[in-house]
Prior knowledge:
Blueprint: H1 5-27, H2 31-44, E1 86-87, H3 88-105, H4 111-131, E2 137-142, H5 145-149, E3 164-168, H6 174-190, H7 196-215, H8 221-228, H9 239-253, H10 256-265, H11 287-300, H12 308-318, E4 330-331, E5 337-338, H13 346-365, E6 369-370, E7 377-378, H14 380-395, H15 419-422, H16 439-443, H17 473-476, H18 480-494
Antiparallel strand pairs: 1-2, 2-3, 4-5, 6-7
Active site: 417, 468, 477
Pfam families: Glyco_hydro_9
Organism: Coptis chinensis
Amino acid sequence: MRLSSSFSLVLFLLGVVIILKVDSEQVKPNYADALSKSILFFEGQRSGKLPSSQRMKWRKDSALRDGQDVGVDLTGGYYDAGDNVKFNFPMAFTTTVLAWSVVEFGNSMGSDELVHVTEAVKWGTDYLLKSTSTKNVVYVMVGDPYSDHSCWQRPEDMDTKRTSFFVSDKNPGSEVSAETAAALAASSIIFKTSNPDYSQQLLERAIQVFDFADKNRGSFNDSLGYWLCPFYCDFSGYQDELLWAAAWLYKASKNQSYWDYVVENVHLLGSSRENDKIGEFGWDDKHAGFFVLLASDLIMKGAPANNTFRTAADAFVCTVLPESSTIDVTYSPGGLMFKKGGSNMQHPTALSFLLLIYARYLNHANYKLVDCDGGKATGSQRLIEIANGQVDYILGDNPMNMSYIVGYGDKFPEKIHHRGSSLPSLEQHPEHLGCKDGTLYFQSNKPNPNELTGAVVGGPLPDDTYPDSRKLFVQSEPTTYINAPLVGLLAYFNSPQDLQ
């Protein structure tokens, strides 16, 4: 039977609608899958003796003699990025934020992922406990960054120096010590029910390490600057870490003395409106995180809207809002947040994480943000909208139509700047690979043989283009402190209705 032209047109249009609907469903971000992969990434960064539960099978045991030069067991912990050095400053920050993600959004991760992310936190805290086991000493780095960066070698093979560096009462390092205390305190919260003895151990050590950091004030730049710079030297001073650690100790212990410490010393961070660091949050600078943490806590307690911490947290938000006159970030044509510095993707993940936490508490208390330019009010939904846009960009809603999470989606970075991922695994190549034996693999234009699933790279250029090259480490190198806040973000957007 021949169909009429009008009936054929109706069928055609219905088909188009169905196809468009299917396509729309296909491109919708799979937050659950991205969350699972972003947590799995931490297994690829593990150092030390790997457990039988290790899921990223191409990784094997590495650095099993760390700490022998000082007679202390310093095995374990994480490699921070694509190299084989253990830097405690970014590692501790990663652990703090990963624990914070669980504190805020753990109930929305699902039971399996909650187990995995808790294991990821514990892998960090187990090592930080080892690093702080000697009185008046905090170990802050294992490895020689100069010799390590001159090699392209698997962590399982590395034969560069594994020197153990530390700070002490004679050569202080308040920033790294205080960040370690913050990590231990924050992590103690998530183990209170599941492992109370371990939680208590973490809290007691956090108190001890904070006391050490506060009584022996000084920067580790002064004693270890040659080894730390330009890798992870401190640019923002140590006052922010001391206050950040005290805030976490107060949250974990409810001890009034830590709140008193914060109130008495908050002036060291300067006025919220005059402070050019109010919009900073990362491994080096804790200003925005500190104010959002405390402002959110005070909001839940019904504090007046015009308290110091709330005012500063609002000022932070104003540095990120595109419509604000005090904006301190730029946005690419495709919508990705940019700030000055290295690996850019650390900024949209960390700052969006803070926006989301603050928005959640504002929403809970039915508060409004005063417009940054005066007059209008900006609701919490706007903050969530900005954070969601950054997450979706990372997952593939961008001009390149690619995901910046390795292994997520159909198109993602394949030539990441990462030694273990770019070199054949021990199963593929059981023979030892020396310092320079990996050079050909580094220079190769082929995709990495081992997928570092869940790794988020440094990200695209400001024009939204992404040159997939392991030689361009600013764009192609993943780091633990990019992933840590993303875990919380993905958990929220996977089931936001649970968190309102």
